[in-house]
């Protein structure tokens, strides 16, 4: 059973090397979050 687990692990590693599953759209940050809004305007616009 241990040999089979190692074999499956190696097969998964080879598959990941040949065809990686990284998808940039999963990690793309779409804009500033709520913490940025709480800090206020950080774009250099002066408040009056």
Distance between the termini: 71 Å
**Spans of at least 5 consecutive residues with low confidence:** none
How many whole angstroms does the radius of gyration measure?
23 Å
- Mean pLDDT metric: 79
Give the tally of β-strands: 0
Q: Helix coverage percent of residues?
A: 55-70%
What is the approximate shape?
A: elongated
Number of separate helices: 3
Structural class, by secondary structure, is mainly alpha
Biggest sheet, in brief? none
Q: Roughly what fraction of the amino acids lie in strands?
A: under 5%
What order do the helices and strands follow?
HHH
Q: How would you describe this protein?
A:
This protein has helices spanning 2-18, 24-27, 34-39. The longest helix is centred in the first third of the chain and has 17 residues, at 2-18. The protein is mostly helical and 48 residues long.
Keywords:
mainly alpha, 48 residues, 56% helix
Provide a concise account of the structure shown.
The protein has helices at 2-18, 24-27, 34-39. Helices cover 56% and strands 0% of the residues.
């Amino acid at each position: 059973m241990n040999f089979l687990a190692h074999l499956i692990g190696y097969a998964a590693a080879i598959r990941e090397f040949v065809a990686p599953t990284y998808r940039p759209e999963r990690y793309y940050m779409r804009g500033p979050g709520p913490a940025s809004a709480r800090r206020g305007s950080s774009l250099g616009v002066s408040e009056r």
